[in-house]
Amino acid sequence: MPDFTRLHAHEMSRLLRAGEISSRALTEAHLAAAERQNGALNAWLTIYRADAIAQAGAADARIAEARRAGPAALAALHPLCGVPVALKDLVSVKGGQATAGSKILRGYIAPFDSTVTARLREAGAVILGKTNMDEFAMGSSTEHSAYGPTANPWDLTRVPGGSSGGSAAAVASYHTPLAIGTDTGGSIRQPASMCGIVGLKPTYGRVSRFGIVAFASSLDQIGPLARDARDAALLLHAVAGRDERDATSAPIPVPVELLSLPESDDEAASYLKGLRIALPREYFVEGMEPGVAARIREAVAAMEAAGATVDEVSLPHTDYGLASYYIIAPAEASSNLARYDGVRYGFSDRSSGEFIADYLRTRGGGFGPEVKRRIMLGTYALSAGYYDAYYLKAQKVRTLIKADFDAVWAAGFDAICAPTSPTVAFPLGARTEDPVAMYLSDACTLPINMAGLPGAAIPAGLSEGLPVGLQIVGAPWSELSMLRLARAYEGITARAPWRALEPAELHLTDDPTTPSPVGRRQRTASASAEGSGVQA
What we know:
By secondary structure, this protein is α/β, with parallel strands linked by helices. The protein has two domains: about 5-320 and about 400-510, Amidase signature (AS) domain (Amidase signature (AS) enzymes), CATH 3.90.1300; about 320-390, no CATH class. It contains 18 helices and eleven strands. The protein has helices spanning about 10-20, 25-40, 50-70, 70-75, 115-125, 165-170, 190-195, 230-240, 265-270, 290-305, 320-335, 355-365, 370-380, 385-410, 435-440, 445-450, 480-490, 515-530; strands at about 45, 85-90, 125-130, 180, 200, 220-225, 275-280, 310-315, 415-420, 455-465, 465-475.
């Protein structure tokens, strides 16, 4: 019997409609892989086995009914009908948990579906479960989860990126063909890059945020993680569009062409002819690993050889992006997270019997150190006497960053290509004690969030055996063009040897004696302490 987990979502869709496979068989194969390998990866926080099997049965019945009704009814089904998908654990699913990776939301059960969840149900997708993440999406490694870190299947001693690291690791490990992540400063694209898959952050407002646990409301955006551009396009089509329950959701039509990216590599590659691509010099930042820079330049050179025109450009305010982001995002987080008080829902410490004391104990014990750090930074930036000096100035810088991008589009460029991350996946524990080093992981991605633009990360080869991601940035609402460009790059590199590789240490996750990421991190910390003469 073939391994259904290696199929792409668009292949599953074709076989389901043809009656050659069933959604139940697909779902059971993916559930088995996730349950068998999660001990070594910790990519999943909960798996909805019974509910997923029921959803698969409903999808099979829906497809069978459409097949009986004729070709028109079959064609009317969304391509994701019967296809498995995972959700980051800040997406509300009625009757299911939504911890946002935090102790303070342990035990919280969502009373409604998010818009993303509802649209996936409408499409007939099968929701397998919820994936691990940095607490409240604050992190770049999925080590700031209250439920332990996630490992990277390419190297189990390394991080998968974050904050959507659980979703990225699950897709890269063939536990699911598709997953939903969120991206506030790079949290879809950076883990996609580090796990060797495709990740897309849509234009701000393209996908409704209703029912998503908030971090920074002017920056958060929901998007797909997948193993190729065609699959990412299918998932984006299913969840995008105007939602009256989200005031920031834009009334922009969702391109139906997302459902029909070219199947032929040659046809896909032809999109590059005549395309103008900008290469920003500021994105090759100081400290970037030579192997990462080399893969990005090779990818852009391949596009140029296939007919694109590539010119170097300057985005002069890029260097201010990191500092301004870490004023704006914590400021919005301090406001959004004020609601977690232990009174209405979630974790509550009432051991003292005094309201104020219990409030302080709840927040002190419920939030992790990174969340506390950002709440304090944000509260300080918004406080009297500092608002103008920090928050207001950061918002002005944000306008300048957006103006840099606007100048590129005004000059006639179709897309910007750049690195996604300055490095490949780094070791577990390497940056947890150095917040600035962790924040620098997103130096190439967060300006795109500041400008509200769409950005994608696509695989571009390996450096020292670990994935490197090429970042594509587009003008507002240009997701279709970006995905066509991503598909074109897949077309011109279809025969590259690295395309056929699977994550190097995925086979180790089948061994029940393989340590969990928590165990590996503790072992690494002990070894580092012994080497430095410090008692662990």
